[in-house]
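User: two proteins, same treatment. go.

Assistant:
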Amino acid sequence: MFKKILVANRGEIACRIIRTARHLGIKTVAVYSDADQEALHVRMADEAISIGPSPSTESYLRADKIIEACRLTGAEAVHPGFGFLSENADFATALADNGIIFIGPPPSAMAAMGDKIESKKLAEKAGVSIVPGILTPVTSAEEAIQQAKIIGYPIMLKASAGGGGKGMRIARDDQETKEGLRAAMAEALTAFGDDRVFIEKYIEEPRHIEIQVLADQYGNTVHLGERECSIQRRHQKVIEEAPSPFLDDVTREAMGQQAIALAKAVGYVSAGTVEFIVDRQRKFYFLEMNTRLQVEHAVTELVTGLDLVEQMFRIAAGEKILFCQKDVMTKGWAIEARLYAEDPVRGFMPSTGRLTRYLPPVTNSHIRIDTGVDEGSEISMFYDPMVAKVCGFGKTRADAIIALRTALDGFYIRGIKHNANFLSSILASPRFHAGRLTTNFIAEEYADGFSEKITQDKEDFFVAIVAVLHTLKCMRGAVAIKSFLELPAIEWVVKFNNKYLPVKLVRNEEHWSVFQQNRTHSLVLDWAPGTPLASGSFDKTPFCIQVDYSNLGYFLSAQGGGAEFLVLTPKVAALNKKMLIKQPPDTSKFLLAPMPGLLVNLPIRLGQNIKAGDELAVIEAMKMENVLRAVRDGIVKEIYVTQGDSLSVDQKIIEFA
């Protein structure tokens, strides 16, 4: 086994690799850019080496700097994690030329599978089902439209060197093909340095299901079952689970055998994933092979009991896989949610800044947290916005959902916007519970966008909790707490969404009785005033809720929703109803930056007539291009920025007449 390895990555995956290395007694070397010099992975490693400026093109994507770091520290091997150089065959070759072991597949397998066009040709030759398409890159909009008409709409434009949802666009007509090709090529060039794009048929109502494989240097290849990754946004996975609630044993076995056949056909070694698209009849088609560790590998580890990073270490060190296919057993159900620094209420725009508070839930046999940050860490505009991967595990799918929702509701993060409530909302969806998943799930279930608005069926829950919270706060400041508790009833009026809801509380020995509109609820609450989390049970159902003070009231969030509440005495509530409501400023005449980022395109001029739907600006943030379009007709009155500017949230870009 290795004595010292270098981790050529950052964030949660670097921390994840370091943990396994430490368990095996292997010394670790971290690399870091200027933006990451105080990062968690740097503090966790035994040694750390600076490799350059913050942009990844000048640091984490510089193979020469990684190799030099190995030379300076004496690292015998490099684990690339995922992203950056993890699927770069030239990097693996360069390591070998310098006597350094690459903890991953051989360069030949990476090269074969790293190009989506060539990989599909190889898959077809190996007897693997592929999606109908034209496996040559398109070079112009006219050629793309011609190919699309041959294949038939809808089509998918895909970057040949792509991954992670980047360089992908769906098109349903000629205009979308023209616009999508430009965007996909630009995004692919930025992310991968390769702007080749090809076209294939887009499968309607698709499910994204992948097979994890392991292969050693002695010809032993096994698969570890499937992961369902159908919950996606902009072709990026959001929630993953193992096993899939859709596959039957026959389909599962067929997919596993095709994955093994492809791995053997390309001489694959190490951990890898063969991704398939599956239609409603369980017909499956090869998408691509990821020649690296996947972000979602944790769910496979939870149901198999295997440490995939450890397996990669052992295989790279020349050891054999010590089990065969019949030995692979899965137990229970695991679901992973990707906790991102983004604002779901504002169209999932990236959010950057410092984590002023970071309190993850306590991990146990049912909850796993993989993260690369802690309190005080900075979420930078230069890298992927992932904060943590949160996993729930249980005997059944229902158990795993409950565990994951509990963890998300108890994940207290401040200083940035994040998507915990959105993830919790997905898990609460009846459609998700039923397992009716497709890659269109988010687009269909949140067609009008995501709102943290509390649904009517949860109003009693939130109103009851805030009333008791306020009572406990008053009790702490009361001179005579005993007399306060001996009141026959405590009456409040809770103001919520401009509604005034009367509540009466009676304190019993172990719980509160809450009376609301002819309904009575039982509430057990564990909360100390000033602490950010309150837990307990509402009508015997456990919960965890986040508590923030907001103006004169409280902001509560849990179970996919959040809102501001004001708790008043009946007399004050009557007066409050007479208060005038301050109207927010009118910003309808301005285009404001919805996120921090780099303004890469500003295709408008002063005095230009704008039509609804016209492209106004393109902002690049966290390796993704975001196109801003006009929502109504107008005339450009003023331009406040220039192309190449770094923008802040809500910064003025354009004013319309």
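Protein 2:
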Amino acid sequence: MADNYDDYSKEQLLRLLRERDRRPNFGLVWERDEIDHDLSVNNDFVALDWDTNLSCGDGPQDNLIIEGDNFDALRTLRMTHAGRVKCIYIDPPYNTGKRDFIYNDRFIDKDDTYRHSKWLEFMYRRLELAKELLTEDGVIFVSIDDNEIFHLGVLMEQVFGLGNRVGVMVWNNVTDNNPTRIAVEHEYIVCYSLNIDSCATPWKSAEHDIKDQMLELEANLLRKGGTTEQLQKTYSAWFKEHKSELPPLDNYKYFDLGGIYAGSRSVHNPGKEGYRYDVMHPETGKPCKHPLMGYRFPEDTMSDLLKAKRILFGDDHTKLIELKIYLRDYRRKLSSVVALDGRAGPNELKEIFGDESKVFNNPKPIGLIQELLSFVTSPGDIILDFFAGSGTTAQAVMSLNKEDAGNRRFILVSSTEATPETPDKNLCRDVCAERVRRVIAGYTNKKGESVAGLGGGFAYLRCRRIPAATVFRGIQQAQIWTALQLIHEVALLPYQASLPMQIAQGKRGLVIYLPKINDAVLDALHTAIQSVAQAVVYSWQPALLVQRLTDPRLAFEPIPAFLVNRFGARSTAKGGRP
């Protein structure tokens, strides 16, 4: 491609040289000046309109489904949820060239010369925003296949940093019955953290069902108080029935008052020289045989394990000692290889929608996302999916909550995926939100059987762009109140125009919004704050309030300037570089 440097001014050439000097020596570069500008990238303020007719459930709503371009949604979430999302799972377009990637309202086909560059530009803008939403120990999972895995890996390193790569999982999900060269039977899940040091604790997931069954069995065994032979017979019957579900340890043929246990060689140091000291056999009084690489724990820790009777000895000192592992304490590690039939996702969607399930292709299985969430989230965490598709992530969150009585919250973002050829298409409304609504309320499956609902609800919100120059006259009262509730971590309630003020209890005090100020409103405000320790008051005339109210418990913020400043619109002009 011929250059056009002859047409550059001196200032433009200097700017280009300085830009090249700042460019990293190693990283991902794509043709950003040659591709069409991403029309979704803009400097507008983004407000959220609450559609109560499409929402689900009564009362305040903690879960959100947002309709709109995810670039817009991520910018408004940066205003409301920065640093609060524990886990992001996304299943972006794989860019296969088979009408799966929409860029500027058009599908990108495999013959597009710049299709990889367009995909990278599209993803980079969104990942940069997503990064700002994660908690310090937060993580992001990205599903992808062979078409973009290598580009995605370098892009993730550019956005999150090489040192924050957690790993890459292989999802063995299909069988290629007609391979041309190498059978493609898997996809990938790339995982990065915001700060690898903050999520250094090993990821492990409790086996909830097995644990509950095991505790019930132990209670029955101990209540019976029979002979060892009788107890062993009862246990053996249960073990035979559930053996395939048990963790892959050697055996669980032992039990005591602490429960069912097995011996584990995890007391031995793996791979390199460990600690050396003698552990005396209780029967022979002689030192037990040393492991090949020594002990894993220092002597003080071993002493504590001996006192707690967590060490298992062999018949004599010639046998290696083992660590006593109770089944109740076993926690399964997240494997880098997941074997899960990819047909499960479409089948699950068909159970909910019946013949309508063809409205969305290749949804991810609930079990895949639930597996990931069970390792990295705790009850109360927020999970975000800004390529929400058919809404699988929401169902996975609700299913996991049911399993462990958690109260995890989901935020789904989905576009309509309308194009000039299909202007009435609305994937978010008709598939994503509808699926979640049916799962919450219950539905009839394809066999005609009633499936009980998981309960809960969500607020259905739409992104609305407001040009930066018109925010002060274009933003609506309901949009302001929705934003303030989300910022202060308040479960959403609709704006009530009939009230003189909007009031909610935030995590750090009372949140009050005054659409207008008069004597009646001030009297109502005095009444509302009588017994509170702290309150923040948002108003269009904060200076007037400061003159009229000198209460030290009150803080005042200007509207909409507070929201505009927090939104932090940035320069997104074409040609900007990472």
